[in-house]
Amino acid sequence: MSGGIRNLARKQDVILNAICVLLATVFLVLALGNLSWAGNFLTIDSLFMTAVCLFLAGVFMINPALWAHEQGLFAAEDANHPPAVDLHFEGTTKLFLSILGALLGLTLVEVLLAYFKVPLTLMLTILLGLSLIKAALIVAYFMHLRFERMSLILTVVPMLVVCICLLLVFFPDGRRSLKLRTYGDRPAPAAAATEHE
Amino acid sequence: MSTHAHVESAPTADWGGGTLPYRVGHRKLGMWLFIVSDALTFSALLIGYSYVRLSSDAWATPFKFSPSILFSTTMTLCLLASSFTMVMAVRASAHGKKRVARRWIGGTMLGGLAFLVLHIYEWNHLIGEGLRPFALPAEWLKETPHASPLFGATFFAITGLHMFHVFTGFCYLGIVALRIRKISHEDLEISGLYWHFVDLVWMFVFPLIYLLSVDFKG
After folding, report:
1. Tell me: the pLDDT tens digits for A141-177?
2. Measured by CB atoms within 10 angstroms of the end CB, which terminus of chain A is less buried, N or C?
3. Does B42 touch chain A (CB under 8 A)?
4. Closest residue to A89, CB basis, from B35, B77, B90
């Protein structure tokens, strides 16, 4: 009896994962097709379409990948990790010192950017990149997330990233409101406006 | 110690469920969820700041490399060093050395205190120059005409909220250090999580608020 139910559940798993893989493939095809359909690939619209399609393909691949992982398809990779049941705080003083060194080094690079007065847009891009690396180092090693269970990482990290990315929706409006502004008799300070791209 | 026993008996499959599906205690999971929500608060504030700056005609960039940027770099170093001492405290506690852990926590609190003192000194200096939440000092306006007065609002709101977090963490660590014999290792680790998060937020506040406000013309 229970064997029959297990077989049914297994069949359902296979069907569900097949649907997921199919949808992921469709979105992957759409993303790749966009490469050729879009006349000029390097436009905001085209890049957005590609990013959304790739993102959706990735989302649909999560379940099959996890299922495959559960079935032991990627078991070879996991063999290196012992089943982490010990509560010991992993990491040595040397590891933490090298993380501290990396953080200090990245901070130094950031401060040097300010010292050489790199143009604002370029500086913003580099600073954000470096800060993300620093944040990842802190979360992974100091906050110990790298050594936690995968389920905790999946609960905490993706939703935070997605929510923060959703907040970026405000920026086009910021630029629009700059152009909408009226100045009465005063001339628009156009030179200053372009400085803040 | 009873939680340790639970942890070891938990199933090892990641999606297997069981008593501790995340293999962390409920307090630690709560701290993680708090950190996520607090990270969203700070990212909303920082994105609000970026929005205001992007949609302004002009934005004041008043911080001279020396002394302003060097001063805030020193604050950053204090916070980074305190983060390192905190991780050493957690490590010592994991090996059962509570006295050593207490000493490391003392070092962490010292770093946090140095940060707070330097930060309050800086605020004092800026307020003395005439920076208010909705008004810029006259000299800054001379350098950058039509600069948005919201510089003060964003600066005080973001660094103020962060300062409040550092202060809270300072008190939190003080309590942990006093009660270190009574609390479990995981509770100490949770206080470490909070402290690292405060450090993490500063890793975004420092470049976006300070370094991007360096005096580009000077």
Report:
1. 999 888 888 888 988 999 999 999 899 888 888 888 8
2. N
3. no
4. B90
| Token pair for B176 | 């942990």
SS3 A61: helix
CA angle (A137, A141, A143) in 5-degree steps: 100
| A142 to B196: CB separation less than 8 angstroms, yes or no | yes
User: Taking the CB of residue B62, how many other CB atoms lie within 10 A of it?
Assistant: 21
Tell me the pLDDT tens digit for each residue of A66-92: 888 877 766 554 444 444 444 556 778
Least confident residue range of A47-56, B101-110, B124-133: A47-56
CA distance B63 to B54: 19
Reading phi first (left if > 0) and then psi (alpha if -120 to 50, else beta), residue B94 is in alpha
Q: Which of A53, A148, A168 is nearest to B186 (CA)?
A: A148
Q: Which helix (H) or strand (E) holds B193?
A: helix B185-205
Interface of B with A in 45-104 (CB under 8 A): 47, 50-59, 65, 69, 73, 76-77, 80-81, 83-84, 86-88, 90-91, 93-95
Burial of A72 (0-12, 13-18, 19+ CB in 10 A): exposed
DSSP A90-135: ---HHHHHHHHHHHHHHHHHHHHHHHTT--HHHHHHHHHHHHHHHH
* A162 chain-B contacts, CB cut-off 8 A: none
Q: Would you call B178 an interface residue with chain A, using a CB distance cutoff of 8 Å?
A: no
What pTM does this model have?
A: 0.75
Q: B55 Cβ partners below 8 Å, 6+ apart? A: A173, A174, A175, A177, A178
- Number of neighbours of residue A128 by Cβ within 10 angstroms: 13
Q: In a 10 Å sphere around its CB, with 0-12 CB exposed, 13-18 middle and 19+ buried, how is residue A136 labelled?
A: middle
**Within 10 A of A123 (CB to CB), how many other CB atoms are there?**
20
CB atoms A148 and B44 under 8 Å: no
Q: What is the dihedral of CA A32, A33, A39, A42, to 10 degrees?
A: -20
Q: Which of B8, B15, B145 sits opposite A85 (nearest CB)?
A: B8
